[in-house]
C-alpha cells in the first residue's frame, strides 16, 4: 500500500471514530441520567464485551507474539487509553451538559501539545501560550457560569468540569506517549490486551456495585443506547483510532477531536437535550480561538503527515 493511501486511511479512520464519539456524548448523557447504573459498572460492561469481540476477531487474524515487556506496556496503555479516559468520561457526562462537555473537548490538542513538549521536546512559543490562556479563559467562564447559575438536571457542575480535565489529560498522555508501542502490533493485538487489562483492573471497583445494580429496571431505550456505546463507541471506534495512530501523527489524531463537538452539539440541540446560550457561545469562541492560535503556532513547525 502506498504512503498516500496509508495516510488517507488514517484520516478516514480518525474522522469516523470521532463522529461516533460525537454521537456517543449524547447517548452517554442519556445513559447516565436514565440508566441507573454506576459509571464503573458501565465501564466493566464496555471492557468485557468489546474485549471479547477483539479476542474473537483475533482468532481469524495472524497471531503475533508479544514479549513480556511489551505486554506490560500494553497494559499501561490500556490504563491511559481505555480505563481512565472512559471512566472519567462517564463521570463527566453525568455532571455536564453535552454542549459544555463538547466545547471543553476541543482543548485535547492543547494537552497533547504539553505532552509533546515534555516527551518530544517540542518548544512552547508565545502564540501557544496565548492560545492556552484564551482557551482556559473560556473554560473558566464555563466554570463561573456553572457555579452561580441555578442548579438542575441540565446544568453543568464544577465537578463535571474537573472530570473533563482529567479525561483530556490522560487521553493526551496516551496519544503522546503510546504511538510507538501501538504501531508495533496490529490493532487487534493491541486492543485485545489493552481491554483485557482494563477489564481486570475495573473488577475490584465494579463488583461491590453489582448487588445494587437493578438491570431489570433499565429502560429498553437505554439498553439500545448501551449497545451503541459498547459496539460503536468502544469496539469500532477503538479499532479505528489505532488505525489512525499507525498512519498519522499524534497531533493530527487529536485534531480530529474537533469533529466530536460539532456532531455532539448538533445532535444535542436537535434532540432537545441541550441548548446554546450567550454564555456558552462566548466560552466556545474563547476556546476555539485559543486552539486556533495554538494551531497557527504549530504551523511554523514541520508539517504533519
Supply the key terms.
305 residues, mainly alpha, 76% helix, 0% strand
Question: Could you explain how this protein is built, in words?
Answer:
It contains 13 helices and no strands. The chain has one domain. The protein has helices at 3-34, 39-58, 68-93, 98-105, 108-119, 126-148, 158-177, 179-184, 187-206, 220-245, 250-255, 259-270, 278-298. By secondary structure, the chain is mainly α. α4 (98-105) packs parallel to α13 and α5 packs across α7. The protein is globular, with a radius of gyration of 19 Å.
In a nutshell, what does this entry contain?
The protein is an all-alpha fold and 305 residues long. The protein has helices spanning 3-34, 39-58, 68-93, 98-105, 108-119, 126-148, 158-177, 179-184, 187-206, 220-245, 250-255, 259-270, 278-298. Helices cover 76% and strands 0% of the residues.
Amino acid at each position: 500500500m502506498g504512503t498516500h493511501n496509508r495516510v488517507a486511511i488514517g484520516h478516514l479512520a480518525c474522522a469516523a471514530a470521532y463522529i461516533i464519539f460525537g454521537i456517543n456524548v449524547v447517548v452517554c448523557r442519556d445513559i447516565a441520567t436514565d440508566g441507573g447504573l454506576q459509571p464503573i459498572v458501565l465501564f466493566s460492561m464496555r471492557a468485557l464485551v468489546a474485549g471479547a469481540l477483539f479476542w474473537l476477531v483475533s482468532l481469524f487474524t495472524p497471531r503475533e507474539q508479544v514479549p513480556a515487556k511489551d505486554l506490560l506496556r500494553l497494559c499501561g496503555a490500556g490504563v491511559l487509553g481505555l480505563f481512565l479516559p472512559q471512566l472519567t468520561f462517564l463521570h463527566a457526562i453525568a455532571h455536564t451538559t453535552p454542549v459544555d462537555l463538547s466545547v471543553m473537548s476541543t482543548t485535547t490538542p492543547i494537552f497533547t501539545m504539553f505532552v509533546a513538549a515534555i516527551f518530544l521536546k517540542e518548544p512552547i512559543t508565545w502564540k501557544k501560550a496565548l492560545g492556552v490562556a484564551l482557551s482556559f479563559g473560556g473554560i473558566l467562564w464555563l466554570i463561573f457560569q456553572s457555579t452561580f447559575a441555578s442548579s438542575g438536571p441540565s446544568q453543568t457542575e464544577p465537578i463535571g468540569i474537573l472530570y473533563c480535565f482529567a479525561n483530556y489529560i490522560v487521553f493526551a498522555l496516551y496519544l503522546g506517549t503510546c504511538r510507538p508501542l501501538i504501531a508495533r502490533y496490529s490493532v487487534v493485538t493491541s486492543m485485545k490486551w489493552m481491554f483485557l487489562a482494563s477489564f481486570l483492573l475495573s473488577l475490584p471497583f465494579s463488583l461491590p456495585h453489582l448487588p445494587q445494580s437493578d438491570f431489570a429496571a433499565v429502560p429498553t431505550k437505554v439498553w439500545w443506547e448501551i449497545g451503541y456505546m459498547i459496539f460503536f463507541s468502544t469496539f469500532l471506534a477503538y479499532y479505528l483510532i489505532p488505525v489512525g495512530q499507525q498512519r498519522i501523527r499524534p497531533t493530527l489524531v487529536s485534531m480530529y477531536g474537533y469533529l466530536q463537538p460539532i456532531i455532539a452539539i448538533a445532535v444535542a440541540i436537535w434532540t432537545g437535550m441541550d441548548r446554546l446560550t450567550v454564555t456558552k457561545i462566548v466560552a466556545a469562541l474563547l476556546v476555539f480561538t485559543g486552539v486556533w492560535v495554538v494551531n497557527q503556532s504549530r504551523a511554523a513547525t514541520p508539517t504533519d503527515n
